Amino acid sequence: MANAIRALSMDAVEAAKSGHPGMPMGMADVATVLFTRFLSYDPADPAWPDRDRFVLSAGHGSMLLYSLLHLTGYADMTMAELRRFRQLGSRTAGHPEYGHAAGVETTTGPLGQGLATAVGMAIAERHLNATFGDGLVDHWTYVVAGDGCLMEGVSHEAISLAGHLKLGRLIVLFDDNSISIDGGTALSVSDDQPARFRACGWDVQSVDGHDPEAVAAAIERARATDTPSLIACRTQIAYGAPTKAGTSGAHGSPLGAAEIAGAREKLGWTAAPFEVPDDILAAWRDAGRRAAARAEAWRRRHAAAADRAEFDRRIAGDAPAGLAAALSEYKAALIAAPPKVATRQASGSTLDVLARAMPELVGGSADLTPSNNTKAKGQAVLQAGQYGGTYIHYGVREHAMAAAMNGLALHGGVVPYGGTFLVFTDYARPAIRLSALMGVRVVYVMTHDSIGLGEDGPTHQPVEHLAALRSIPNLHVFRPADAVETAECWELAIAARSTPSVIALTRQGVPALRQEAGANRSARGAYVLAEADGPRRVTLLATGSEVGLAMEARRLLAGEGIAAAVVSMPSFELFAAQDAAYRAEVLGSAPRVAVEAAVRFGWDRWLGERGAFVGMPGFGASAPSGDLYRHFGITAEAVAAAARDLV
Ligand SMILES: Cc1ncc(C[n+]2csc(CCOP(=O)(O)OP(=O)(O)O)c2C)c(N)n1
Ligand SMILES: [Mg+2]
């Protein structure tokens, strides 16, 4: 049965003239043990909520996963798809991509991230188990990770967090082949991996990865521990290839006709390319039906469960009934008594409302809870043995936090958000990118969003981050101007079911600008906050903390008889998605001045040929916030002067 994986992987890579045969061939025995004896899944019902999750963190070995999905009988993973490996529009992308095929639980390929994503899935499982009980939620998360995954820094954040939270339902199968691309791993690493995992509180075993009984016994044992488990599976890369096995030459290129012929002989595999002998296929299909009875029993329990409706709502990701009303009541209160607060505080107040209405919100922060204002009133901490909580202290682990949030969202049943400083989106960026690529609802609460944070200085002051984040496709970057806009942006982030959001928030206080909160005005990305008194001579565009400056500039200009409109632009992306007429109406035909305490990159799209920009020329500096705004010339006077020059 394992040889079927080997043959299909060799054949598909050969047909594509590209790909990675070595890993699937090396891990075929381990994967066969897992998929035929342990993993609980139902190819006839791939979305079964209580299925075990399987994450191929070593995503380059995608043919391992595609072979398994085909062999076990996932309807959409046909032999034709295997033949079209890596071709445009196939389900069999170069690296596994979430949404392309049933059974692909997450997108992997950026090494190490799959492991961190799996940590999030394992957290979600324990949390929902604590909420709904063993009858509805009781499953495992298995990961295949290679030398590369374990060399990546994020692996350390992930295993450290998993060990701390005692995620006993997480089992990592390490493809311990001592080979990566450059050659033997001894070229670049001499870590004692078992010792590293043990130091993080994991149970560790080492086995011969080509001995199925030994692998099975190890998985059995791992399931009996109450800590996460590492099973180092000693394997030979490209097992079965006569000359390339055990070498880096088998990592990432087709083996070639002669080597494949030799491997077939060595493995005793006589079937033609892309053919699996009937008896072997039948054995695989039986394995694919192994858990069908378990799934059926689950469906019966589910049908009879008292909290079935709530469980289904959370799994579907639908908003709770009271959410919209709670938010509009909150916004009405903001209009009645406008608070002059930092938008991070406004976000915290919004979260108090959201968390009460949405029990599926699972928040956290990378050790900046009091700064990010991410912990809502009444949220209990999710910790080892107490998984019912909805707040996670992720520790100083931004990359793993973001990847784990992807895992939480992918698992389903929870809606994750998490905070750090905006400048440290750089530490989380690889996972933010995957949130966007996969199209999962993750909310990044990023405070201290400019030089306005003051004395911590340029290491902590983002200047290029808004531009960098705005450049990621399918990511909403929000920079709300006041408490009402902050609530609106949160509402939009929760409503965006297949788009992650970054909400950039100030450390410093900002004035309340909005006079009304009927419709969600942020929903169109930009809107006229204050129309010009008389025909528009200039349009002032601003985001976040600079919208107040623009309003002040408008007042100064009015004193000189220059009628200026102020446009608040909480989201470039949503504005860009509006029809041309709306955009033209908002932007107007008068010259434009934009103000944002960040670099200009990206603004020219809205400024047009004649526009002016008031913002950061480079990195910031360490000083009180007000001094910095004056020093860098980001003031109402400067905006008014730029406008005067243009009219
Ligand atoms: C973050 C990241 N960096 C680099 C790569 C490119 N890359 C793909 S596989 C690989 C080597 C991985 O070695 P290992 O996990 O041991 O895989 P094996 O060669 O054993 O299949 C590298 C560097 C990547 N996919 N992701
Ligand atoms: Mg390796």
The gist of it:
This protein is of the alpha/beta class.
Please characterize this protein's 3D structure.
This protein has 647 residues and is an alpha/beta fold. 43% of the residues lie in helices and 12% in strands. It contains 26 helices and 16 strands. Strands 7-6-8-9-11-10 form a six-stranded parallel sheet, sandwiched between helices. Strands 1-2-3-5-4 form a five-stranded parallel sheet, with helices on both faces. Helix 24 links the parallel strand 15 (592-595) and strand 16. Helix 5 packs across helix 17 (398-411), helix 14 (323-336) packs antiparallel against helix 20 (483-495) and helix 17 (398-411) runs parallel beside helix 18. It is elongated. The mean pLDDT is 98. The protein binds thiamine diphosphate and magnesium ion.
User: How many strand elements?
Assistant: 16
- By secondary-structure content and strand pairing, the structural class works out as alpha/beta
* Gyration radius over CA: 27 Å
Helical residues, percent? 40-55%
Residue fraction in strands: 5-15%
Topology:
Elements: H1 2-16, H2 22-38, E1 53-56, H3 62-72, H4 79-83, H5 113-132, E2 141-146, H6 147-151, H7 153-164, E3 170-176, H8 193-199, E4 203-208, H9 212-224, E5 229-234, H10 257-267, H11 278-288, H12 292-304, H13 308-316, H14 323-336, H15 343-357, E6 361-365, H16 369-372, E7 391-393, H17 398-411, E8 415-421, H18 425-438, E9 443-447, H19 465-470, E10 476-478, H20 483-495, E11 501-504, E12 527-530, E13 538-542, H21 546-559, E14 564-568, H22 572-576, H23 580-587, E15 592-595, H24 604-607, E16 612-614, H25 625-631, H26 636-646
Parallel strand pairs: 1-2, 2-3, 3-5, 4-5, 6-7, 6-8, 8-9, 9-11, 10-11, 13-14, 13-15, 15-16
Antiparallel strand pairs: 12-14
Helix pairs in contact: 1-2, 1-3, 1-10, 2-3, 2-9, 5-7, 5-17, 7-17, 14-15, 14-20, 15-20, 17-18, 21-26
The structure holds thiamine diphosphate and magnesium ion.
